[in-house]
Amino acid sequence: MTEISVLGDHTDWQNDFEQRLRASHTAAGIGVAAAERMLEGVRGGIGDWTVAEITDAGVRVGYVAVVVADEKGAPTGRIGDLHIDALHAGRGHERAARDWAEGWCVERGAGRLDIRLTEPAGGLFDDYGVRGQLRARRVSSPPEPVEGVTARPMTPAEYPEWLVSEKAAYVGDIFRAGALSPEEAVLKSDRDFAELIPEGLATPDNTFLVIEAAGEPIGTGWLRHGYLPGVTYGYSLYVQERHRGKGYGRAAMSAGEQATLAAGDSTLMFTVWGGNEVAMNLYTRAGYRVVEERRSLALPRSAA
Fold first, then answer.
1. Least confident of 10-19, 21-30, 230-239, 278-287
2. Of 300, 242, 252, which Cα lies nearest the Cα of 279?
3. How far, in Å, CA of 10 to CA of 47, rounded?
4. CA distance 104 to 51
5. 226 and 261 fall within a common domain
6. What is the pLDDT of residues 78-94, one digit of tens each?
7. Coiled coil: which residue ranges (predicted)?
8. What pLDDT score was predicted for residue 179?
9. What radius of gyration, in Å, describes the C-alpha atoms of the chain?
10. For the residues 199-207, what does the mean pLDDT come to?
């Protein structure tokens, strides 16, 4: 029988959690230094988590960690960790821990529950909506060029139109993922772009590309180098709608990989918003692994 008990001392759990997180990130192609940097960001927020030990007949089989925090004036729950040791997996402990976490958050007034998955969950959270994925791939050698497709630096004349289009697309991604209202998404877009590229094309460590086929622009790319040690972050690789379905999506990825290597990085990373299955499928075919997947569920859970 599954029993769940809140721990007073989190030391053993934290050591286990950090080891698992580090292993999952490096397995996805993130270098050791970059994985440690990502871990630092997580480590800074776990002090408020409530951590419980999952046991069966007195034997520890895993952990579950939860927190409820204010988000825009509304209590929002989060499952920070839910892990069952491989030896005890598939015996119902996962579902019991999930139900306990949901109930714990409901008791504290949470209207939504978020989770960040960093390892396979066996379908346990399939009814949670996907809000976004962080994907990455280690680029060990220059990609094969796509015949007839080239990439060149964006010009100052092309930048203003690109910026308007990119901000609008970002708003749509945020709203489609169910993260924010349209008005909140616009404010976030304005704020994020002003912070990320304050000097436009001249912002250091950023590459802005125009992708062409037979001399005609078919798409654009925006990458930030040194986002993490050895990691380039692809904020956008875009192919115009009328040119989709012709293999240019992979060509855009190749242009991003080439820019990554040229900048001295060895891993290319992207965020894919929930609802964008086309991009998710493209990244899967191109060998980009899921580093993290964020999902959410409205609380209380509707009666089935």
1. 278-287
2. 252
3. 9
4. 12
5. yes
6. 999 999 999 999 999 99
7. none
8. 66
9. 21
10. 97
Work out the pLDDT band at 276, boundaries 50, 70, 90.
Answer: confident
The answer, yes or no, to whether residue 171 has pLDDT greater than 70, is yes
What is the pTM (predicted TM-score) of this model? Answer: 0.88
92 and 60 co-located in one domain = yes
In 133-146, which positions are buried (b, 16+ CB within 10 angstroms) versus exposed (e)? bbbbbbbeeebeeb
User: Does pLDDT of 303 surpass 70?
Assistant: no
**75 shares its domain with 171:** no
Rounded Cα distance, 284 and 221, in Å:
19
pLDDT at 297 over 90: yes
Question: In the beta sheet, which residues pair with residue 222?
Answer: 208, 236
Return the residue matching tokens 């958050």: 105
Rounded to an integer, what distance in angstroms lies between the CA atom of residue 228 and that of residue 134? 14
Structural domain harbouring 16: 2-126
Confidence check: pLDDT of 169 > 80: yes
Q: What one-letter code names the amino acid at 269?
A: M
Domain of residue 259, CATH code? 3.40.630.30
Same domain assignment for residues 286 and 213: yes
Half-sphere exposure of 127 (CA within 13 A, CB side): 9
